[in-house]
Structure formats: C-alpha cells, structure tokens
Design a protein that fits this description.
Chain lengths: ~475, ~230, ~375
Amino acid sequence: MIEAVGRALDRRLGMARFVREAMNHVFPDHWSFMIGEIALYAFAILVITGIYLALFFNASDAEVVYHGSYHALDGLRMSAAYESSLHLSFGVPAGLLIRQMHHWAADIFIAAIVAHLARIFFTAAYRRPRELNWLIGLTLLVLAVGNGFFGYSLLGDLLSGAGLRVGYAILLSIPVAGPWLAFLVFGGTVPANGMTPHMYAMHVVVIPALISLLLGIHLAIIWRQRHTNYPGPGRTNRTIVGSRLWPSYAAKSLGLFFLVFGVIAMMGGLFQIDPVWIYGPYNPVAIIPGAQPDWYLGWVEGAIRLFPGVNLHLGHWLVPELFFPGLLFPALVFLALYLWPFFAETLSLDDRQHHVLLLPWQQPFNTAFGCAVFMFLLVLLVAGADDFIAVMTDSSVVTLRTLLRILVFVIPALTFVVVYWLCLRRRARHAQDKVADEAQSTVPQERPQAGEGPSLGFTVRVRPD
Amino acid sequence: MSAPLLVAIAATPCIHGQQAKPSASEGEVIFQQQCAKCHGDRGQGRSALVSIAGPNLQAEHDTGKVLTAIYTGPSHMPIFSYLLSVPQANAVAKYVTQSLAVIPLTGGNLSEGGELFRVYCASCHRTAVRGGPLAFTGVNAPQLTNKSRALIAGAIRWGPGPMPKFPPAVLSDEQVASVADYVSYMQHPPNPGGRPLHFIGPVAEGLAAWVFLFLVLGGTMWIEKGGEG
Amino acid sequence: MSDKPVDPGDARAAEETGAKKEPSLTRDLARLGASLWHFAGAMVSIGADLLETARNVEQKVDALTSPLPADEPGIDGPIAPPAETDRDSDRDLGPASAPARLRRLRWGTAFAFSAFAAAIVAGIGFICFYWTRGTNEQLGVTLAIALGGTGCALVFYARWLIRPTEAIEPRPELSSAEEERAAIAHTYRSAAEDTHRRTLLQWMGAMTVGVLAAGVVSLLRSLGSNPDQTLYSRVWKHGERLMTIDSNPLTIHSLDTGGTAIVFPESSVGSEKTQTVLIRVNPDLLQLPSARSDWAPLGYLAYSRVCTHAGCAVGMYEAEQNLLLCPCHQSTFDVLRGAVPTSGPAARPLPQLPLYADSDGTLRAGGGFSEPTGPGFWGIDD
C-alpha cells in the first residue's frame, strides 16, 4: 500500500531520485552524535504539548476571583492567566500531565542543548566548515533560554513573579538606555498590565518561529556538509563512514524520539514540577525565599548573589551593582562562546576544512579551558542555590557565600591544571603505544574482517607492567 | 536554655503535692511554680536568639494535648509525670486551656490564611512551610510540618527567637486562626502532580532534569551500541 | 405600343422591356427564392469558412498545449530490483554464520513483539484512565510505557532485524569549482545590466529600507510607555497615615518593641511600589544620621520594602539583631543606621520614611522617602 502511495506521489512529483539519494545519506554511528537529536525531539514534544496548552491558557492580566476546585485558593483575587493555569491543572483531564510534560521537556531541551554544545566543543566540531552551525546553535540556545523564562513566567504565580521583578531590575540597571528598555519590555513598572499577553505572543509565536527557522537551517547545513566522523579506519576528510538513513538510521532516530517522549511522559506523570497552586497567585507584597529561576539561569542567579554590592558612580550617574553580574557577565560569556571558533582558528593557525573530529585529549588547551569554564559555571549554579544548601546543612548563608566566592576562582584554576596534565599524559601514552605498535607489526593496518566490527585506527594496549 | 538545666529546675520537690482536692487556683499555683520559668507567667513563651525555652501556650484549647506534653515531655520539655499527680496535672491542663488560652482558634478561612501567610510568613518559612534560610549563624526558619495549630498561633503572637511578633493590630484573632488553618493544610498538601521533590523548587527540578537526561543518554548508548562514530 | 425609333442599346432594353411583358407573381417569387437561395448558400459558405478557420486555429493551439501522453502501460506493475545499487559496496557487519544470523533475527522479533505488546496494553490503559479521570501518575506511567515501548520496538528493529551495514561514501566538495563560481557571478550580475544611474537608484533603495526599518521600530515603540516620573517618585505625601493591608491606621500603641508591620500610604494600599515596612525598636539603640534624628518617634522606623538590589520585597525582619533581610539574594540592612546594607549584594540603603505621631497618636508620614525606591538605575542620582 505504501508503494501505491509512493507511485501516486511520484506521478505527480517525480522525486524518486531525490528521495532515493536522501535514503542513501550516510550518518555516522555514535551515541554522542545523538545528543543534538534529543534536543530536537524535546523541541518537537514542546510544540506538541504546547499546542494543547495554548488551547486552554488565557493570557490575560485581568483580575478575577477564583471559585474553582482547589479550595485553598477559593475566593482569592488573581490574574486570569493564573486562574487558567489552575484550571489546566485541576479541571482539564490530563491537563496537569501535559503541563508537567511541557515544563520537564523544556528543562530537558536546554540540558540537551548544553550537553550537545559540550560535545561539539570537546571534539572541536566547530572548526571550518562548521563555524556557521556553531553560531546558529548558540543562537538557538539563547532563544531556548529566553523562551523558557517567558514560559514559566506566563503563569502568574508568586515564584515566577519574583523572577520577573529581578528581570525588570536587570533591564533597569543597563546604563543610559536601562529605564527605556525596561519600560518598553514590561510596559511600565513591574507588575504592569499587559505583560502577560506580550510574553505570550513571544513565547508561542515569535520565538518558536525563530527556533524552527534556525533549526531548519541548522539541519540543512548538516545535511549538506555531512556529519563529522570520529577518527577510525576509513574515516578521512574525504570520506564519510556510517549507516544509511533508510532503514537503519531512520529507525534508530525515530526510536529515540519515542524514548525521549516516553521519558518525558514518565517525568510528567511521576514528578511534580512547578506546583503553582502551592506558590499562590502573584502578590507584589508577598515574597518567598529561594525564588530561583529555572536551572538554566541559575548561573546568572549565582553570579548575582556572589557579586559584592559595588556601585559605580560615573560623576552624576549610577551604574547599579546588578548590571555587572546580571547582564554584563552573561553577555561576555556568550560573546566568548560566539567568538570561540574564530579564536581557536587564529590560535592554531589552522583554517583548513576538518571533517574528522579530535578526541578531547588530543587538544589539551581546549579541553582544559572548557572544563575550567564548565566548573566555573557549575560553582555559580551551586551558588544560585546557596540558601537551600544553608538550610539543608544547617549553616549560615553568609559563611557559605564567602566560601563560594573563594571556590569560584580556585576550582576552575585547579580544574584547568589537572585536566591539562591528564590530557598531556594521555597524549604521551598514546605516542608511546604508537611507537610500540609500529615496532611490533610488519603488516600495515588492514581492514578488519566482517563480523569483528570496526575499531579505532590506533590500538590501545594494556602495557604489561 | 539547655535540657539538663530544665530538668534540674523541674526536679525541685513539689511542696503542695498531697492535697486531696485540687482546684483551678491550684492549677494556677502549680503552673506559676513549675511551668512559668520556661513558658512565661502568662504562658506567653520564652526564648533567646538561638534556642526556645518554652513555646507560647495562649492558643492551646485542648486539655488532652497539655496532658500529653506533661506526661511525655516533647522536645526539651522534661517529663512531669513523676512530680505531679493525676489530679494536679488535670488542674494545670484546665488552667492552661481555660485561663491562659486567650487566642481563640475559630473563624479561620483557609484561602485568606494562605494569602496572609504568603504576605507575612512565606519570606522565611516558604509557601510549602518547609522552612527557609536566614542570613545568620546557623539559624534558619524552621519547617512547620510537625507543629500543631495551637503552637503556630501561639508563635505568631509571641515571635520566638528571630521571628518577629504579630500583634492584634497587624493580624486579628480570626486572621491568626486562618494562618494556622493554612499551615495545618500545607503540612500534607495534595500533590496531584506526583512526587513533590521536597518542595525545593527549580533547584531540585533542574537536578532531576539532568538525571533524566543522563538516563536518556544511557538510552542512546544502547541504541548505538557498537557504533564507532 | 410606342412609336419612337429604338437604338440598339435601346433594342436590348426594348427586348428586356419587351420580354417583361407583364408583372408576374410567380416569376417574382421564383426570383426571390433564387436570391434567397444564393444568399443562404453564401452564408453557409462563409460559415463553413469560419468553422474551417476556427478548426485550424484550434488544431494549432491544441498542438501547442496538448497534455503529455499518459504513463506508459505497465508502469504500475511490479518493479524489478535493479541489477546494481549504490549499496553494493556497503560492508556487512552482521554475524557471519547463518545460525547466528537466525538467532539474531529470532531474538529481535521476540523483543520487538514484546515491546509492541507492552505499548498496546499501556496505550489502552492510558485511554481508559483518561476517560475515567485517573490520577496524574496513572496517566503518565501508561503514556510513558506506550511511547517508550514503541521506541524500544523501533530500536530492536534497528539493531536486531536490519542487516547491519557500514557504508563509505565520498564527501561532497564544499568549495565550488572555479567555473561554477564564475557562472554564478555572471548570472548574478545580469541583474545590473539594464539600469542607468545605478548608484543613485541603489542609494534610493537603501534610504527606503532605512525609512521602512524606522517605521517598524516605531511600531515596536507602542509596546511600552516612556519611563516616567514614577521611577523617581518619593511615594508618600506629608501627613498621610500609615495603613495596614486591611486599611487600618496604625498608632503609637500598635507595636511592641521588636514588632513589625507592613504599611501603605492611604492613597495606595496594597501597591507594589508603595509598600513600606514599619518597625519598632528600642529608641536608645538608634544611630540615625543627624539629619534624620526626628524621623523615628518612640523608636518607630519606616523603610521602603522594595529592595534596592533587584526589587524583591524585603520580607524578613530579625528583631534581635535589628536587621532587615531580603530573601531573594540575602542582602541585610541595619535598621538602626538607616537601613545601610551590611552584607549581601545590595549597595544602596533602603529609602527611609520620616514619621511623626499626631495628637491622637496616629502615625503619619513626615514627607516622602529619602530617595527613589526600588533597584537603582542610570539617572537615579538626578
């Protein structure tokens, strides 16, 4: 039957050759190449669950009185947006499941992007000709983080309202244009009426459209350039080795989609996330401690907490203390990330095309620097949760913060040194093994027989000690 | 105050122990002798910055709870069953619940209590009443999951340790009852979404997301087993 | 009969006139009929000519626009596999022996079958739970098994039931050949061939784009308002009473030492920007700057409750240490010295409100806040 459909289509489109060439497209087989696909499928799940939620959500700041099924909030005044999120959670069958799946999928989406970024970074896949995809991918990360922030801020609960206030203060702290930008984005001092419809339009239409467009270009570039290979037999800059799209890779990829979907469904069913009915409706006079943003902004939150209260007075004008950790620091981090491929190219004086990856230990500076930056951001992430750590360990948040201020510099430096040394050691050992190999073998490396499976181009032997 | 000191104070032999028929004033006398040292002469509670000697009893309307406390000595309260006979204990309980308990715990509204809690209390205790950090040496706002409504109402009026006190001008008696109702409800809230991850919030959720991402990565290792890239 | 002499021209005419001896109806009708017949014949022949022309034109048009012929017969028949495919050179990675291959297929089929079966059962379970309003956990777990089972089945298929092959293909040249580049450059430049005053038009085009962009930016402007005087507002007016959130005024008897309350000006109770924290401290401990020495009657102090760091409500008051604590980033403010920040990331003190007690003891504001409230911004020192 599928063949009949295919014939009918071919009679009208005549694309048999194109589709066949697509089916023959080769994809290298490695689990670390699937991380980007996890992000892609998480995005698809976000769109699917998001459409369902958008049909029920009421993005309005109008004040209503609640008389729904959750009696602990009965009779209270709240925004219509908050009321619709309560309705979704308690009134719509499976509404809570879809809502939780959507939020978990967002967390996983950004986690997968970050893991994918790490894989690209540590295998130097950003080298020519893939710098363009690196830039597009980073932009996707920024868009995803922004969309996540808007997404959970839409609900109008106390936790996200506190986060919006901090966002407003960060915008306000920008020199010169701060008050203008803050009033433009928020429509007035927070909380302002009309904020929720703006955020809704961004979250549901503008940013997903941009993400879809950039994602399409990202995938098209991979398709055109072909995926990179890890080093191994037959894997050169002129060939690509892997399995074909049809049926092998398509089945694996589709299987991954369903697995990711299944894991997200399990999380949505078993683990409560963002219980807005416990936080209560946003009340500007109320506040909760530990009003952290979602994890992907936790490093900014940590920077805000650790940065000392230092104002900058430029004569008559003030650059508030929030500007440096809240805006300047994240902007610099992303700027450094954007420029990295070009910086690495200049540093290594290598602008040739590369289609075979480098293993992490083959590029010690890159790997050590990346690990150090990663640990820096991780310490900041932990600092963003320092109030919980203080409660759980029964210690003072002030001493903890002083400790973290020291660690945020010491740990990355230590990491750099240790990782650099480990990479050099591995490289030395590999050189020794290669010399030993060439001394022992008299026949050049042959293709392994069928049934043995491929191996790396260099053997790693256990040295008899 | 430390527990050994309390035990020493309470071990003072009771002079009035052999009367045949205890009365309400008897209860008052015993209270002032034995209990006021920790609980205050009007049961208003006593505390220092880091520790609490005895909580406020002015909302305790349940004689059963008072008797249980006298006989089992919760927290660092000593056990008084060796020092007080049953009629004496009953007298004390009657005195506490009838004369000292001036905070009526009636007329509370659950949702109003929630709103008030979020305005006045959540900044220290968090909306899920699981306690929160204060910026001082080892002192954090405690979790309220095992406190009775009477204790909560008493603490609101008394302001134990670092907690401020909320007089009737700020929170009326009905409002105090509402807040106590809300806290009591939040001790076991319905969690329709599943496991609440200790009500920690985005920090725990982020950690869980990474754990599950690693689970999915394990899945990719299974899918591409044998793949050499 | 006429007697005039007749000339030869006339003779013919005379013959004719002579022939027309008498008017005859039959003859007229016959002539009419003949004329009509000729007329009809002419019409028909014209019509036939027109039709002929039209048919010719139609044939010409047909010849130009006729549809392509139908598919050849047999095109829907069974398709024989081609003699050679691009996949012939792929390397087989599967087990070498036939029994091993068979074992692999059997296991794979069994696994895939079980996975599909689990997915089907769980899927039916999900639908049942949905219609009977099951709990979130029931819905989530059944959906997870249904989806995960499908995924597992696909993976079993991919790993056990497809013959594993490894393909090696050449990578495409990513830099086009020189001729290609020359050709596309030439094609691109053909856009510019036929314009005069090209530079001028380019400038005009650029200016148009600039103006359109400015138009778009102007549209965006209506998203928000101008930053206005509310940023600089001192919020309180002289003489305004301090009200609780229930709109009760506070007096000097309202709080004990160590007590605290949230207050608002009469005109805007419950507003985020105007929220103020009222504290009563022991007046002997006060160390306010001399300019503010009369701002705290009987030890009553009032500060803005909006943190100067990031705008959270400074909700925590620590009576024993006389510190206001903001729960968001743990900034602490010393209330005895005018709420100067003592630890944490805040850099500016909380704005203080001057207080006085009137004749009935009601607490009233003695003016606005000492500074604009809320987090700092560029022009705040203006």
